[in-house]
Amino acid sequence: MPRIIAVSNQKGGVGKTTTAVNLATALALEDHTVLLVDLDPQGNASSGLSVPKSEVTIGVADVLLGFRDLPDATVPTCIDGLHLLPATRELIGLEIELVEASRREYRLKRALDAHADGYDFVIIDCPPALNMLTINGLAASNGVLIPVQAEYYAMEGLSELLRAMNQIQKGGLNRKLVREGIVLTMVDRRTRLCRDVADQLREVFGEEVFTTEIPRNIRLGEAPSFGKPVHAYDPLCRGAVAYTNLALEFLARIGKTDEEGDDSKVIELHAVEAS
User: Which of 168, 207, 169, 152 is CA-nearest to residue 14?
Assistant: First the structure.
């Protein structure tokens, strides 16, 4: 079975979807098969891969409601090895439809258990709220990757997510759910606030905070408007380099790659960034 990672933070605007899309892309570019699941009714992960929800006829809502199997709803992307389970307009009212559904918290888990064994990784872009969609994402996942913007308000979203994870673990929905790590996003090391927040996070969470930091980078903001992940839009920009390094660090953590080879690749990419 694949390693299933929910990308989640209860606060919006912290780079959650950007991280889900570009980490999934970077993993695929490292020769892994990846499924990106867009659970956010906004559908930004889908539109960022040229699959706007207004044009999707079969998507994640159909899978959660049991109308279609997972393979029927997934679509290829511009990145080899990366598939997308897109959002649809029906996601907005899905919670109402699931109110009386049996085992409603496990709809996504059931679909992935049945049909996702061909993937190495499943990356789930969760909504910025603790609703039934997010609960489905967390119940289906092995771990949670938490993007945190380097500012104090973002710390509140982190606290809320940690409480939600604790409830899901103790409530029995997913006792094996773990934190995969915390990713600092929108980092500008020139500001004291950014440095202070980063230092505080590392002091509290230690090695759970990834060494790789995602910088503020205009290319990361531009790429979705062209329906591309940043690696397809500008593969040598600072944002693309950072997400590649994040993927390599993540793979090294879980023992999926040759550590020596990864270190040399990261150094090479940093050299490109510096040039």
Answer: 152
Tokens, residue 185: 């996003």
- The per-residue pLDDT for range 212-269, each reduced to its tens digit, is 999 999 999 999 999 999 999 999 999 999 999 999 999 999 986 544 444 445 534 4
- Of the candidates 44, 54, 39, 45, the one whose C-alpha atom is nearest the C-alpha of residue 6 is 39
Collapse the DSSP code of 249 into the 3-class scheme (helix H, G, I; strand E, B; otherwise coil) and give the result: helix
C-alpha closest to that of 12 among 178, 164, 185: 185
Q: How many Cβ atoms sit within 10 Å of the Cβ of residue 108?
A: 28
pLDDT in tens, 145-192: 999 998 877 777 788 889 889 989 988 999 999 999 999 999 998 888
Ordered domains of the chain (ranges, CATH): 3-274 (3.40.50.300)
Strand partners, 152: none
Instruction: Output the pTM of the full model.
Output: 0.91
